[in-house]
Specification:
single chain, about 70 residues, mainly beta, three-stranded antiparallel beta sheet, about 15% strand, binds zinc ion, Insertion element protein
């Protein structure tokens, strides 16, 4: 029993003419743009285990302070 992720569309050109490549596990080739790519399952997200109900935009309130003393002149 082997779980293999099959892409429906080419991530580069969006074509559906994909065929499994023999370059390696999870490798696919696109016949439309002649690109070869590989899918890799990284793992489950920690936040995916929780019940996500609210879809709020991520507000990044980060101030990048650069402490750099620099003499002008
Ligand atoms: Zn393609």
């Amino acid at each position: 029993m082997s779980e293999r992720a099959a892409p429906f569309y080419c991530p580069y050109c969006g074509d559906e003419d994909l065929r499994p490549s023999e370059e390696g596990h999870g490798a696919w080739e696109c016949a439309a743009c002649s690109r070869a790519f590989q899918l890799k399952f990284l793992g489950l997200l920690a936040k995916g285990l929780q019940a996500v109900g609210t879809t709020t935009g991520t507000t990044t309130t980060g101030n990048t302070t650069t402490d750099r003393e620099r003499g002008t002149g």
